[in-house]
Design a protein that fits this description.
Helix content: over 70%
Strand content: under 5%
Radius of gyration: 20 Å
Number of helices: 4
Number of strands: 0
Length: about 110
C-alpha cells in the first residue's frame, strides 16, 4: 500500500512537469516527484525489517545496509541544490519577461 502511495506521488509529479505551463509549478512538481522517489527508496530499504546499524546490546542480528541511506541523503542535498539553481534561473527569466508561462516565454524569445 505504501509503495502505491510513493509511486502515485512520482506519477503526480511527473504529470505536473508535463502538463503545467508555469515554470514555478514545474519546479514544485519536480520536488513532488523527487519526494516520491526518495519515499520509494526508503520503503524498499526498510521492507526487510532489518535494524539500523547502531551499536547496542543486541547481538547476532541482521543490520540494514547503510549505503542506501547515504545515497538518499546525497540525493536530497543534490535535489535541493538543483531546485535552488532552477529558481534563480526562473527569477532571471521573470526579470526579462512579464510572465512565467513557458509557452509565452518561448514566443517572446523567437521575436
Amino acid at each position: 500500500m505504501l509503495e502505491a502511495c510513493a509511486l502515485t506521488t512520482i506519477l503526480i509529479g511527473f504529470l505536473g512537469i508535463i502538463l503545467k505551463k508555469n515554470l514555478v509549478m514545474k519546479i514544485v512538481s519536480m520536488d513532488v516527484m523527487s519526494t516520491g522517489v526518495v519515499a520509494y527508496y526508503v520503503l524498499m530499504a526498510s521492507s526487510d525489517g532489518l535494524l539500523t546499524p547502531i551499536l547496542g546490546d543486541i547481538k547476532n542480528t541482521d543490520y540494514a545496509d547503510p549505503v542506501p541511506q547515504a545515497v538518499i541523503l546525497t540525493a536530497i542535498v543534490i535535489g535541493f541544490s538543483i531546485q535552488a539553481l532552477m529558481l534563480v534561473g526562473v527569477m532571471k527569466l521573470a526579470r526579462d519577461n512579464p510572465t512565467l508561462e513557458s509557452r509565452e516565454i518561448e514566443n517572446n524569445n523567437r521575436l
